[in-house]
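FIELD: query
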Amino acid sequence: MPHSNYPGGFAGGVTVRGMSVLNTYSGNVYWVDSGAGSNGNKGTFDRPWSTMDYAVGRCTANNGDTVMVKAGHVETVTAAAGLALDVAGITFIGLGNGSDRPQIDFTTAVGADMDVDAANVTMMNFLFTGGIDALTGPIDVNAADFSMIDCETRDVTGQATDFIVTDANADRMTLSGWVHRGAAAAGADTAITIVGGDDITIKDFWIDGNFAVACIENTGTAAVNLSIYGDGQCFARTRNATDVIFTGVATTTGNIGPNINARLADNAANVTEAFVGADMQFFNPIRIVNLDGESSMETNITASTDA
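FIELD: result
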């Protein structure tokens, strides 16, 4: 039962991935559930709203508001900016595990997307699905300090061209515990395309898809202090003969590794070319394998010497 003495009302003892939440908070707590909710409700635990988009409009910028999204919720996005995260400082927490996690499904138009247009937005434990072929960037990050924690992006119908895209305003974006399950068939360019931005971090990821460009691409504008690594072990696989895990603008700075395991598509002279970053530093172990039945080798990018 919800505790009536808490504004917004919520069930006590809520945990996400074993972490207790909502014991203390600075702003309002709202609830969303497409199964039992209505946007005519009050947004409480027992009278939730039906859409995240509506909840955003009820939040106050930089107030520390939290939107709790119940297990089984489905948010359908059918147009560009169909879900606009344009109020700063909101935290979205999805409840449930596996297929019960809240799902954000992009469908109907290839430009259907979720626009992150305000700073300091966090999303935790969501499943994002491509419900139409050739989506052009369903997660579009255009603001600073966006965090996506323990979320999954997944091709369902065809292949998203680039599932996550950013612009130069996406400073200090953090993707942690991100899983991308791309289609095995050709059609994708990248799992994420980064255009500029300072201090972006991608860590503890699992990426698989048929990427004509790279699993992770930085293009157009150099990124500053880009970090791609694992606290534990990361995995990235491309099923495309291009055989590139990361490629960056020549003047992009930052660090790649440690703890990255890469699977390439072809048994070829492709190990050195799997990670491209002329002004970046590489920290082993970065392990690469390019044929079934073989064990990995560490990247053979030129090693530092004590000269």
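FIELD: remark
Residues 52-58 form the longest helix (7 residues).
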